[in-house]
Amino acid sequence: MNFKTFMVVLGTVSSLSIAVTGSAQAADALRVRGTVVSFEPSLLTVKTRQGDTSAIKLNTGWKISGVASASEKDIKQGDFLGIASVSKADGGSGALEVVIFPAALKGTGEGDRPWDLQPNSRMTNGTVADVTNIDGRAVTLTYDNGQTKKISIPDNTPVVTFAPATPTDLKPGATVFVNAQREADGTLSSGRVVVGNKGVIPPM
Fold first, then answer.
1. Which of 1, 56, 27, 84 is nearest to 194 (CA)?
2. Is residue 62 situated within a structural domain?
3. How confident is the model at residue 5 (pLDDT cuts 50, 70, 90)?
4. Fewest Cβ atoms closer than 10 Å to its Cβ: which of 40, 69, 146, 166?
5. pLDDT tens digits along 10-26
């Protein structure tokens, strides 16, 4: 991989990691999930999964990221993951989606917090302390100075890693995930867009 390609991939990774892990502003963020209606150089219009339409102003210097398919079999001890999950009837947690971070971004957004992928879901970013394969794949994540959480990963769980993307991927119908901010005048703005490309959609 040459230096230019490395920088493109690193920029993509950074964009997606911030989008899926949240930030100090996470409490004020509005996560927009849906499909592209239209795209202009500084305005993205999205039909949300709720069925309404959101116009999002893209800030100067905005970034775009894609995702690539991975497998739960790729997960190993020491990896850093972001997993959205929900509680199961047996008291454990079941994954809704998994993001595998590159080693360079280990620790990004570490912790466990409420998430809105589904009702009562949570996002946990942590290091894999253990991987088991009893009754399916399961991982134990460690975070925040020793806290742990065991999460099972059903076979049909979307597992992704990072991939480059360009604004040309923002075609009508493309699936996007945008961590937006609501401005004082009520409009939405964002500096980052995660888009599905090559048949892979952002699962977060």
1. 56
2. no
3. very low
4. 146
5. 444 544 544 454 443 44
Joined together, the tokens standing for residue 67 give: 């995702």
pLDDT at 19: 45
List b or e across 161-172, with b for residues whose CB sees 16 or more CB atoms inside 10 angstroms. bbbbbeeebbee
Residue 73 lies in a domain: yes
> 23-71 pLDDT, tens per residue?
434 446 789 999 999 999 899 999 999 999 999 999 999 999 899 999 9
| 156 & 78 share domain | yes
Residue 167: name the closest of 35, 33, 64 by CA: 64
Q: How far apart are CA 162 and CA 17, in angstroms?
A: 9
Who's near 110: CB < 8 A, 6+ residues apart?
A: 125, 126, 143, 144
Per the structure, the count of domains in the chain is: 2
- Look up residue 54 and give its two tokens: 């959101």
